[in-house]
Amino acid sequence: MTGALFSLTFLVAAPFWALMILLPGWSWTRRIVASPLIALPVVLIYALLVVPAFGDVLPAVTNPTLGGVRELLGTANGAAAGWAHMIAFDLFVGRWIWLDARERGLRHAVVAPILLLTILLGPLGLAAYLGTREIVTPVPETKVLR
């Protein structure tokens, strides 16, 4: 079951990424991405992996050590849970980037590569966006995809 949940994790997040990157101007994209609940399917997968192992997880997260975290993540269940954790938070951050960029009037051509970076290397995508939004000039209101 762990392998199936690992494989399912990105598959349930991918449609939301596709909407933000490939269909930013579609009216349903805004409606769907506006909800923070888009991360919920991945959170549920995470819960399926973590709750049964809660006795092992809790000590590792309440008093973390490098060895303890390495041991926890060194199992198939731990790696799958870590993956779900990353995918859920990357999607939530990507959603925030997408919404914030639209609110600021940033061009999608600038934001789309940052969203791709966020999918692959979440914190670096966030850093790239935070830097970009400070230096890129917004487009006039009439040219922003709404």
Please state the overall shape, judged from the principal axes of the Cα atoms.
elongated
Helix/strand-derived class? Answer: mainly alpha
**Which residue ranges are poorly predicted, with pLDDT under 50 across at least 5 consecutive positions?**
none
For this entry, what is the oligomeric state of its chains? Answer: single chain
| Count of distinct strands | 0
Overall structural domain count: 1
What is the percentage of strand-forming residues?
A: under 5%
Q: Largest sheet, described in full?
A: none
Mean pLDDT: 93
- What Rg, in angstroms, do the CA atoms define? 17 Å
Classify the helix fraction into a percent range.
over 70%
The total of helices stands at 8
How far the N terminus sits from the C terminus, by CA atoms, comes to 41 Å
- Taken in chain order, the helices and strands follow as HHHHHHHH
Key attributes of the depicted protein:
146 residues, mainly alpha, 8 helices, elongated
